[in-house]
Amino acid sequence: MSAGHHDITFPRGLKLAALALVLLTLGLIGFSRLTDVGHSTLPVATAEGSAWISFQPRENGDVAVVERDSASEIAILVNGDNNFAAGMLRGLARQRGRIGVAATDPYELTRWSDGRLTMTDPATGHIIVANAFGSKSAAQMKGFYEAARAAQAGR
What is the pTM (predicted TM-score) of this model? Predict the structure, then answer.
């Protein structure tokens, strides 16, 4: 045996405690899967409606929110306002620019039966859940959705 080598032994009680912890963890995982206790799942939601919108820049720096099918302008994002949609658009435009897709191509807004409102970018596959960014952001996206649906209906 070399001079720097030492035999390291673990106490029997420590080995048994580690084994008991592993077995307890596996047992609790199995119990949770069999009974759904401590297991969370999201309820299945269905789409209640959708609308397509695009964001069109203006010369003065504002951005027009346009419903795709009717080409109706449904909102204006004023240049310099620090709002949710403007920040979100900058990030989405950056992603689209990386893959060579125009920032003005439309996005799909979808209202779900569980109250969520999502905006899907078909070009990148990104899905933004408006409710996740607070009530003010969700209200802004809900306004876009409702105005787009009204424009689709010709109201």
Answer: 0.68
